[in-house]
Amino acid sequence: MTNDPVLYDQRHGVAILTLNRPDQLNALNFALIGRFMAHLDAIERDDTVRAVIVTGAGDRAFSAGADIKEFSHSVAAGVEIALRDFVARGQAFTSRIERFPKPIIGAVNGLAFGGGCEMLEAMPLAVAADSATFAKPEINLGFPPPFGGTQRLPRLIGRKRALEMILTGDPITAEEARQSGLVNRVVLKSKLISEAEKLAQRIIEKAPVSVAASLTAVTRGINLSIDEGLAVEAAQFARAAATPAVTEGIGRFLSRAAGRA
User: Does 87 map to a domain?
Assistant: First the structure.
């Protein structure tokens, strides 16, 4: 296993990013966050990559969250430094994931706690191993989730469910995460990556501009009023409608319809 904090693999149009600090339960330190963001920058420019899967190295964790040892130095330096070096960096990290123009699928192989759960909340899709667990334990350290968790989790699973997780720090199971809407599906751990790849392949069968427009419409519109959201939807339709994908898609539909007539 290399010392690279984020491993990269690519196959069949899908990039697989593996958080690679297994001895620290894949905790999110500054080096890992920086490396992950650099990979996203490269993937965004690479037209041969159509989707991204994110998982964790080792058998125990997707990510245990922020590297508290590193974070403690920022806190010791004062609130302004902690806000700049820790909170702003973490929020920029999850916002980049949330707004990424290609689908990112979390493949949760173990515990997803704290910042690891916040990463997952920012991803549009997620598959979890049946042994995975999810928690928001920041309350036990004396502060609320700082990487977007107080905002995204209630929008995903509802205010009361989110507040129970945030205020108690208690973990939930993979099945509870599925039932609440935090993950799309739960699979055997041995099939986790293959199931995530199957989901990715179903998506990349579609036109790239249609996928990107759909991601943008949902991500931008979800926190707006319905009228503002509909305007975002219309703009993304216009973005896709100007491409050959629409003409080709309508042509295929009409050909099938004519064949059934």
Answer: yes
Give me the sheet containing 172-173, strands edge to edge. 61-63, 111-113, 133-135, 172-173
184, 125 Cβ separation under 8 angstroms: yes
Q: What is the pLDDT of residues 72-103, one digit of tens each?
A: 888 888 999 989 989 999 999 999 999 999 99
Position 1 in a domain = no
CB-CB contact of 219 with 162 (8 Å) = no
Inside any domain, residue 75: yes
Domain that holds residue 254: 208-260
Edge-to-edge strands, sheet with 51-56: 6-11, 14-19, 51-56, 104-108, 125-129, 185-187
Q: What is the pTM of this model?
A: 0.94
Length of the chain: 261
Task: Give the residue numbers marked as catalytic.
Answer: 118, 138
CA atoms within 13 A on the CB side of 114: 24
Query: Within its chain, how far is the Cα of 21 from the centroid?
Result: 18
Q: Both 76 and 194 in a single domain?
A: yes
Among 173, 188, 204, the domain boundary falls at 204
Helix (H, G, I), strand (E, B) or coil at 141: helix
